[in-house]
Structure formats: structure tokens, C-alpha cells
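User: C-alpha cells for this one?
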Amino acid sequence: MNQQSKRNLTNKIISLAGIMVFVFFIAIYVSVCSNYLKGNRTRRKLFGATYMTMNNEFYKVVNNQIRMQVEKNGDEMITLDPALDQKKQNEQIKQLVKRKVDAIFLNSVDWKEVESGLKAAKKAKIPVIVIDSQVYRNDLVTMTIVSDNYKAGVLCAKEMMKQKDHANIVLLTHNAARSAVDRINGFTDTIKKNKNYKILASADTQGQIERALPKVDKIIEKYKNIDVVMGLNDPAAMGALAALDSKGAREGVLVYGIDGSPEGKKLIKEGMMTGTAAQSPKQMADTAINAAYKILQGKKVEKKKVISVQMITKKNVEQTDISRWQ
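Assistant:
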């Protein structure tokens, strides 16, 4: 082989070696990228949420707090609004099951009628974390996070009893929500042994301003001796205030709510609303999302978490941040 042929062979060998090295590194790059993307797909979670209504600032705060943590972790969240329709909410839960979400955050419209939706999630082995109001079939959910709703009612009753030694009382309820039932029970159980306190009337308002207003309006037309209105939440109490104002009947009437919303605290400061037992939607949300990630990591969480409440009146409202939830 002459000198020229040797050089040509050497160049071919070098070129072939270069191509092989290039292909080798390309293969490594593709493998690394593939594993990275696969790992990302594995780590990326999809959460679902459905609350009884988004026409309530409380649930907006809960949802936004959860969503913030979810997106901070690079995960996704779907939020659905059944607008106080349990049949629609059951369909939404089943829709989330079909989307193969990793976990569901739930605040049920009806604490008993939500069962078919819960069964669908249970069958698909999707953990359900209940927020704010427990469900009837506790065995169908992984965790329940609620305020001390019964105590909230007790606090309102005790505060009222300090203000009045006798009273004709109107109750604004939401019978399909266990949280609301517990609140009203806490109130009525506290006053039931004292004959000076009489339940004049009761109306199911579903915790909505626009439903409370006309119902309280009718109660005012029927009864002229209302001393106290006990609302299951701040929106119901606000609806009552609007009705009392429209009838010129607000003077001397004590109006209580449960939430501790910025709007409620502002009304307390202005001397319109008497008091509210404050919840902490942010603490609920943080507890819920932290529990969800633990569950997905195979860790155990407590079956039920009860978050304390605080009574707010004109005496201590200035000590709170009026512009924010507790």
C-alpha cells in the first residue's frame, strides 16, 4: 500500500470514529432527555376540586390558596363549580375520575347525597380530601378538614347571652350542609335550657345573601318583635342586615354570622353586624394540600383535622386584620 492509500485509509478511520462518537453522544442525549421527560410526567400531579358554590368568598380563598401551592410545585389543578346542585357535583366528581386526577378536594353541596360521587372516586382509588363540611359516609374519604363548627355556634350564643337576658331569635340555616347544622346546633343547645330565649322563626338560606334577604324580609313582615338573627355564615347575616335595613327594622337587633370574613369584620367595626365566629380558610387550604402530597407519597395522615375558631365582636375587631381572613 502506497503512502497516499495509507493516508486515505487513516482519514476514513478517523471520520468513521468521529461519526461513531457523535452517534454515541446523540444516543446519550436522547436517553437523558427521554428519562427527564418521563420523570417530569411522573412527578407532575393533577388535582381536582369542587366546592358547593364559588359564589362565596370563603371557597375562593380556599381554592386560591391550594392552587398557589399546586402551581408552585409545577403541578396542575382543575376547579369546578356545581352552583349548589348536588346532582351536578356528583357528575363533576365522576368527570374528575375520568380525567384520572391524583386527588380531589371536596366541599359537598349535600353531605348525604354526595355519596354516589364519593363511591366513584373510591372505586378509582382516588383520595378525597373534604374541606369545611364533613360528609355522611366518612369511610369513603381519606381526610376531613373542618372548623370547630359546633363551638362557633356556642361562641355566638354565649356572646348573645351577655348582650341580652331574653330574646326572640331568627335562625338562618343550611340543612344540607353538616357544617351549618353543627353551627346552629351549637347555638340552640347553648340556649335551650333558658326559657328566656325563644326561636321565633327559621329559614334555610343555603348560606347565600340573595336567598337570605327575601326570606328574612318575609319573617320581618310576620314578626315585629325580632331581637336576634343568628346566621350560619357571614353572607346569610349580611342578607339579614339588608332585609332589616330595607324594612327600617335594624335598630336594636343583634346579628351574628360565622366566617370572620373581611366584609363581616368591616360591618362589625361599623356597628352594623354584632359578631362573627372566625374560621381560617387559609389554614384549611394549607392543611389540605400538605395532606394531599403526603397521601400521594404513601404517607399516613390523620383522618380528621379540626381547626379552632375565634369570636370577633366590636371589642376585639381592631386587633384583627380587617382586610384579611384569619
